[in-house]
Protein 1
Amino acid sequence: MKPLFRAISALSVLAIPAAALSPALAQDAVPQAEAPPPASLQTGDETPWIYEGSDVPQDKDWLFGEMDNGLRYAVRNNRVPPGQVSIRVRIDAGSLHEEESERGYAHLLEHLLFRESKYLGPAQAIPTWQRLGATFGSDTNAETSPTHTVYKLDLPAITPAKLEESFKLISGMIREPVLNQANVDAEVPIVLAEKRERGGAGQRVNDATRETLFAGQRLANRLPIGTEATLSAATGEAVNAFHERWYRPENTVIAIAGDVDPVQLARLIEEYFGDWEGEGPTVPAPDFGDPVAPAGADPENPVGELAVLVEPDLPRSVTYAILRPWRPVQDTIVYNEGLLLDALAQSIINRRLEARARSGGSYLYAQVQQDDVSRSTDATFVSFAPLSDDWQAALADVRGVIADALVNPPTQEEIDRERAEFDIAFASELEQKTVLAGSKLADQIVQAVDIRETVAAPETVLNVFRGMEERFTPQEVLEHTQQLFEGDVLRAVYVTPDASDGDEAALRLALNEAPQVDGSARLAAKSVSFEDLPPVGEPGTVVSEGSLGLTGIPEIEEVEFDNGVKAILWSNDAEPGRVTVKVRFGAGYRAFEPEDAPYVALGEMALVGSGLGELGQEELDRLATGRKMGFDFAIEDAVFSFTAQTRSADVADQVYLFAAKLGMPRWDPNPVLRAKAAAELAYDTFATSPNGVLNRDLDFLIKDRDPRFATPDREMMAQVTPEGFREVWEPLLSEGPVEVLVFGEFDREATIEALRKTFGALDARDPIASQVVARVPSFPDAGGGTTVLEHRGDANQAAAVIAWPSGGGVESLRESRQLEILTQLFNNRLMEAMREKAGASYAPQVVSDWPKDLSSGGTILALAQLKPEDVPVFFAEAERIAQDLSTTPPGTDELGRVTEPLRQLISRASTGNNFWLYHLEGATSDPRRVALIRTLLGDYSQTTPEIMQLLAQRYLGARSGWKLAVIPEGQELATKLPRGGAQAPEMSGR
């Protein structure tokens, strides 16, 4: 693990005092005090609780324990990131454990545990964890599902004292929360705000789909969010009864992975949870129920419950499911081999369905997926989106492809292709085993417990898979395909914007019709090899190479080729098996003319798919088979980028693909037409909620209605053609400088040679025109009052945004980092005002955007989803906070609650290659970025109250904020505060 600390030690050269670094960074692990060994560790020949009844080899990195009170735990040492401990406490109770009058209680209880408990006063959990360096929402979080509730803590820079304190606090939260009426009354409005934000057409469809597909089972109407009626009627006594019934040691599993001796972790678990006893007798879990066919159903035509849902703003979609009862299994190797065969069978069908869609089929997408849902059903789901109102044709096409898979074995080539994909995925997991974050390892235990199965080490998964070679035959894959579609219960939902499309009788008739076997989507045998591909051009020449000049990490180097392409390389073994390749080129959003707007979004959707050279999407997929490759494309403020996560063996081929896209692009029309259809189908969905309207219009409005940032409507998209797409994008691929970044475990000399043959072989690039370089988005005038947009969602939903212009560019980058501290101060205060005190918004947020590649164009933006009547409350609170920050310096404790989590966030992130890549990208054209890394940690974590006040005066107090409100169609924006003033707790959510 020593190389992992190379990046951390480099931080010590930054211009900050040594004392500012986290103590955990200066030591290999937390020193442990002598203590009695844990009494409940399962050692020797004893089978750990999670492996009982299984022959899956034990993952020896985990230590397991089961205490006398029934609580089970799993602990392991993990040093990724260094100094962190990830704690997961899982309670085996979710929304399926609620009685009818308790709907929503499991989730409400999750909230209440963070409100007040034995060692934490009212509303003190969040600030307390912040003082310990944990970021709210990412490091401290929780989730409630139908089957469990999980509390998640990722604690950075751990010390023995912090670890002890954390165990004390979380034990108090789990065992002894304060569940009085006052706390219930304070938290219910927040949960109702969360429920309100999830509402709208999409949620209505989700609810109706769940009720249809899981009819007769608890899962049909037991959403974790609950109902407004049951939540509004909640009492402290009733919630406490739910806590006593289910929060018991025998229902609890604790999983911890971190940079601490696991025996010490086990000792702490036993110390703080060993004397925990449940209140009253143990209550068995309720019967979740089985999917049952309607009485008198015809076994030959097992179509059961159906629903046709009319939502004018949603595109057409069909989902049908074959449902079987869920039963616990013996998690054996043979069982897992069956799961792998099931997964491979699904992959073959899905690849065929995708091939049909790509070639101009009747549907936009289609997918088959088997899933064990909430320990309620073992189901196979088929979902697709018709391209027109002829949904019957799309259904017939999808079922025809599936029917072929059910009667005809796949070819061996198809099987081998999917095997190669699985093999590379499992091999990559093994390669990266030593750099898997402790949080993910702890989550894996939680997931295994939830589905009542074991956890397997990556080498076990790979060995089992590779040991199945004799089972990967056409006949056995056919048998597993057939099993996926066996079942006595078939249910379906059709969503349509037009009630005249069809009814339940039409849907039943279509599903009862025997499908026509269609083998045309089978993939023909065709070999594609990188060795057969043409060269990008004449290999270039390296004209210079040497260290980039980053103090402490001289291995990060810059290489320049004679055609002007520059590369930044860092070959290191800090993350075994991982290599990130990023290519930056061109002018980004600056490159487009106003009339190009429809082609901007289509570029992100279709540019890669349109191919390169003689290779279309299908050929590109074949090339990537058995390799770890990627091809993400993004349009950034002032640059375009390709990005991929790959591995050392595939770096040369990965850079070939990227370079070939620039040097010899292909212009296949089908991906453009498919992307156009998707954009047209999706456009109306933006209007279904305030958040959808923000996604559609905020970027456009906050950039002063710059057409380049507009979401094209149906009329604009109707004018789009593949020829127009090429006309816009072809010149952009040959314009502007190219920078290639390769960070990770790779062979330096081989990679430079691969770059010489690919990017070094590109033709000289066309310069970016001066008028393009000068294009910087404007900020709207705040003097015109509040901009008001309407949505067609629920009448109780609204959104509000207030924003101020900031800046951009590298010259003031250090100031932008300090501005991030100010933004987090603003965020904490807005959360306190709008969530904790008013209960008006579930998750208000404040964000700072500072474009490094532009000279200006940055913003500070606050937003929240609310009730329509609370929009003026939000504006008043945001403006009050902005003015308070401008007139009064923040207190030391308040500042520390922001700077300590930021310090830990930077310290942890700096152990990964992507952190360095992100901060060094663009350095070949602007070397100042290299020097600015030296002050990065201090800039984000060290400041003074006076600096914060000065920044607030400069960016928040110097001008009024620009305001945007999104309200329901037909309503008017309230212009006055509700009775009680801006900070009155009773103003909303009650």
Protein 2
Amino acid sequence: MTASETALTFVALCLPLLGAVLSPICYRAFRSGAAWLLAILPLLSFLHFLSLVPQVAHGAVLVGGYDWIPSLGLRFSFLLDGLSLTFALLVSGIGTLIVLYTGGYMSDHPQRARFMSFIFMFMASMLGVVISDGLLMLFVFWELTSITSFLLIGFDHTREASRRAALQALIVTGGGGLVLLAGVLLIQHITGLTSLSALLGSGDLLRSSPLYLAALILVLGGAFTKSAQFPFHFWLPNAMEAPTPVSAFLHSATMVKAGVYLLMRLNPVMGDTVYWTTILPIFGGVTLLIGSLIAIRQTDLKQMLAFTTVASLGLMVMMTGMGLPHAVEAAVLYLIAHALFKGGLFMVAGIIDHETGTRDLTKLGGLAKAMPITFSAGLAGAISMGGLPPFVGFLSKEAIYEALVTGTGITLIFLLVAILGNALMFAVGFGVGLKPFVGAKTETPKHAHEAPVLMWIGPIVLGGSALIGALFSHGFHEYFSNPMSSAVAGEPVDIHLSLIPHIGYPLGLSVLTVMIAVLFYWRLSSVRGFMAAVLARVGSGPDKWFDCFMQGIVRLSFAVSQKVQPGRLEFYITATFIAVGAVLMISLFSFGEMPPMPTLSDDIQIGHWTVFIIAVAGLLAVINAQNRLSAIVTLGLQGFAVAIIFLLLGAPDLSFTQFMVETLSVVILTLVMTRLNLVPSDHRELRQKLFDGAIAIVCGFGFSMLLMRVTAVPFNDALTNFFNTYSKTIAHGHNVVNVIIVDFRGTDTLGEIGVVMITGLAILALIRIRAGRRFAPSLGARDEDAQQEKAQ
């Protein structure tokens, strides 16, 4: 990647962030026209990525970026190959249409500018995920998608259902993100590589590691939670509480495919193993069945589409992990087709809701005359979702069956799962894209009429793109599906599927799927009732389990808090010193770091011994003090003794500082003790005193051993030489200690001053509160007398 391409890619990533900043300004200045202006920003990003398509189509892998933390080998870098570039085009292209759609859908909403800003922030986060080359950079953007989706799902925060759905999505995907972080760090530990481009060129380095299975499980944890695979599928349908633009963008075309993107990205280095080809097809197949069966049960248009999204994600994961010839091509084609038809159908569902006032399929019918453009868009999406020509959905379904018929044994089970899942999704797709528009006209809460251009332009463009991609399949494969499949497979791939039918098993299975699907659609009400009865018999599912889990977490947290946070300062101090003593002693003994016992030096003079004796006497006085005031005063002897030792050993500056700190501490504590009515004596039992004394001895002994061990290390005078050399030339000071405190450690010193100031203010407030309580009765009596005089 050239310097200009790198700079333009960085700009393309930042343009959505600019949109987030400009949204409030544009809506205040242009109101209804703001959406058209704001859509220019993601359109520019789309055009930049589109300009790179010819290079990538001819085999180029574009890598570039900027140094982030060179000492750690971290770069803010980009990787653009067939996989990441296609995803970037989907994110920016559909994102442009979503911005326009939002402008029409939220035209009267008072918080439309805030919502648009959230949309742009999510767009930037998702772009960062798919074009990142650095593993940690990918993780950062991965978590940003979870945070921004939380804001979007919970946009209508006054509704409890929206808050619950947002929190659920954040916990599930955020928790999976933490698991992914562990996987990323483990991959870096195994390979020593920090970038995807280097990792993809490492061959079998990751697969041959004994830690491969652990890394795989951690990666799957992140991917499965983000892409709503069983048993984490429940959060995605609940996220339909968000406004429809969110559903059309995040939960059909972009965010939920982040997990699929990660699996496809790592397929060349983690795929083609027994674990990979077992775990992915099983979980993907189960997710496909569960999603499609529950989808046929729904009557809410968005819920129907949401559960088919779950099913489609399962199908993508299943095909990504099959390990069969052409399976990767099938997964890639279906991913592109799904983004086009599902994004369009979600927009159609939103238009129906916006213009009729309901999303209930049982209350909709005969809308084709009132909404002809929406009907055309919905029908195009339904045909593509059903896998019928002449749309890209047909090519993807043919590719799925072409891959699965080559397998044997257990692969036939997955073939049957794919047929049933596709048939159910066919019925649901036509239930959303066709059924509301045909039949007898029904009465709706609002008078049905065609939506404004801002709303129908999106589904029309997506439906047209699916049509053009299939009609010009040769160019579509050359520039999009072939480069993407090659990146996922790790080797060149050439797809030849077209709209011209080829007699064989795939075509026969497609016909069989359509026949089953037509039967499901014809008896849609009966099938819905049957599935409702089955689900009622099954009982609670993962959604209810999540509520039980959260309740259990709350109860456990409360119980633990009651034990570890009882509200007693004595308990906190005791626990802290036990932990300190344990860390010191265990570390010293476990690693054999106990220092040799010191020997008495002949340099110790009578003055030194006198100070030591004073310190010991002060210690005994503290232990035997009858009240806290005496203990504080005698405790000051320890600090003064240490200050004298510093003075005798040739450190007058340090000694003066110690004198000041001890004097200030004794004065402040004495002042507080004289103002507060505290218990004057120690009421602890002998057993408690012995226990506390043991802790004190362990901590004191541990710190002594640690200091002796540290001082036994050969002295490194690098810092000494540095300060001696630069104190005059840089800080212009002759007193090295003062220069260190004021200049080299100026911020640290400022922080210490801040701590002392805050402590003084807290003590002053405490004294004033005590004094106020002392004089409160007399003040109250004075006020009472004044009131009586006024009454007279």
Protein 3
Amino acid sequence: MTDPSAAGSPAPGPVARARTDVAAWWGRTRRQAARLGSTIAYGAKGAPVSLALLAVMWGGLVVLSLTTRSYRSFLDHHTALGIVPIENLRLWTPVTSGLFAVGVAAFVVATALFLVVAAPIEHRMGTRRFAVAVLVTQVGGSLLGLALAALGQLLDEGWGFQLHLGVTSGPTAWILGTLMVASANMGTLWRRRVRVGLVALTVVMALFGGHLADITALGSVVVGAVAGPFIVGRSSRATHLAGTRREGRVLVALIVAASAIGPMIAAFSPNAVGPFAVLRELFRSQEWTLDEVNLVCGADPGSTDCRRGLLDLRLGGVGPVLASVMPSVYLLVLSDGLRRGRRFAWIGAMVSQVVLLALALANYLIRFADLDNGDTLFYGVADPTLYRTAVPFVVPLAVMALLVITRTNFDVSAPAGTYTRLWATVVGAGAVLAVLYVAVGALIRSGFDGSPGVLTLLGDFPQRLVPPVLLQWFDPPFLPTSWLATVLYEWTGIVFWAVLVVATAGSFVRPAYGVETDATERARAVLTSSSGSALSWMTTWRGNRYWFSPDGHSYVAFRVISGIALTTGDPVGPPADREAAIVGFSEYAAENGWSPCFYSVTPDVAAITGALGWESIQVGEETVLPLADLAFTGKKFQDVRTAVNRAKKAGVEAEWISFPTAPLAITDQITAISEEWVADKGMPEMGFTLGGLDEVDDPQVRCLIAVDEQRTVHGITSWMPVYRDGVVVGWTLDFMRRRSEGFRPAMEFLIASAALSLQEEGAQFLSLSGAPLAKVGDPTEDTAQTSTLSGMLERLLDVVGRTLEPVYGFRSLLAFKSKFQPVYEPMYMTFPDPAALPSIGNAIGRAYLPDVSFGQSVRLVKTMIDR
């Protein structure tokens, strides 16, 4: 086992550190290249169909190049797919079009897809099923693509005409379709990601690029989605798309990123013809030179040609195109923030969609409300049809709807001062750029037509920060005529946007701990310098609010649900101040009209509240494993020793990692294991005192994984620190997941390995945590309080625990932990007002399952009835 916290040698000097960092980077790069090479080699092994088709593609290039005058002309007239070839009865083209590629870029992309996608898929699916998938997706996707192309003419006559005349060749469509086929029996995580990613990619390409190749790729993906279960079968895992909150963020981020990439495709694709390619008019127009514009405008400054020429000078060239694309780049950065659950990213994405809707509305009003008497050049010079004007509304409305529906997923706030620094950086950059623009512009004023003065340059500076396309309403006061003036004029705004992009991306990298990051950081500081219970690290989790004692030495973590201030475990702080903290928090709750309830607390807290006249109910059992004299010997530890011995024989080892810094190859497997576990339940992960991947992704939480010689992760456990007087004295088990088809006794092996490893480090105990709604013994035997409201609630909680057992297995978990012969310590719920018990029960249920949907509730009830 390796321990990331092991002490090292004294810190080296700067030069030595730099050399070490370079050596480490080079070592990682070599290992990653070696792994990539081995992955490609592994995928290519046993992939005869993929390698044969790759050979045909390259062999066709060589043969046809030597035997025909024009390789491309031959393909277009004999093998390429299109409506015209089908009309001319070249009925073989739905097959032959997937064998050859056209163009250097197409060959490079196709070759990469063969090696990275097609060959590994064939190795995974088997040659026979892969061959069937290739044929079905190539032919089916081609026919569906042609049908969609024929329908395209009904939507847009110009687009339909381009599709009618267009032809396509290349294997990209069937490779993507075959990947969609293979996704049918993938694990939950990758099935979901592959399907959402492929659909988003091909839809964006079809709508913005709009070429026949893009349409047939979409058709192949659709055919692959339908045919997949028939070719490879369905996955044994759940098929619905519901997943964890963390994965929901990833999927939303993928869709928002796709919406940002679409306009960029339109901007950089000179031949984009899709229905949304009308947005390319946001980025480019016909090329004019300054001399031509001066000639036209000199003859008639108010003419349409003069205005078009001035507009083109603003939109033409590399600088203006990049400046117009920068908002889309910024939206991509916001997508990364959405992936991390950041509230700022959600707000930024919503604002960006509102801006796009405002621009679309302005376009509509100008074109169809005659606000400019028909003289506008807004959005270029294309024919102002209703269809072309309506298109810009579609994407922003769809993205806004998605963001609104999933808004509860994005509640992570940044640490204190993050956005103060961000805006200070952005405003500072703007001020510096303003000074440079005016100063340099004044020095080279002869490089502009009209020789602008300082005030004119200063008045023009705000326009430099606005994407050029948004300036089409305004006549430019001056234009650059020299290369230096052009650089200053066009690239000032790009630098500003680059600073904004980098600063925003940097804000998302800063650690955040949930809805109240500032308070959470303060709570962490108190916890790590004082004392808490075995469950106290849970007080730092997302969803908690905090009450701090007047002296700041103690705090209580809580959440308010239905008027109940429900705490997470004991108060944190000096044990001598525990009673004062309980009383202080209770008074604070009363002042706010809440009824306090301490949940999952130790017997010490229950005794204190009992002396205050509160009532208590046992709600669980904590299992504690003392480490001082621990040795897994004797008959009672037979199962544990068996697991350890089997791990040695199977080549499975235990390895300590930190999830935030672990290699992607490891964390991705852990994420996949977790998503499959959630999908099998058909219910969302429970929260409150049960952590998920968000809680594992913490630099102070240690993870112990079971990995084999191929670096396959078979299981993972996470361990939270337990502090006493500012020193870590123990560790608490939280996250437990095992690969369904992996090493079966992975959990026994990992817990035993953690116990022995942490014993060597000097830890005093391990807490195997508690199992909610599960207790040792038969709780129905205690009938002394059955006539009281508290007794009735205790019996009700027992019934709920038994009912939920088939879904969440709390009692089975408690029985599993008994293999380690732990010491059992009861956990209590204590409250001052028995009349609030119905609200308390509701609050507990909503705390554990805050995101349960109606459909999931129906499945839960059905599962309980069936069992």
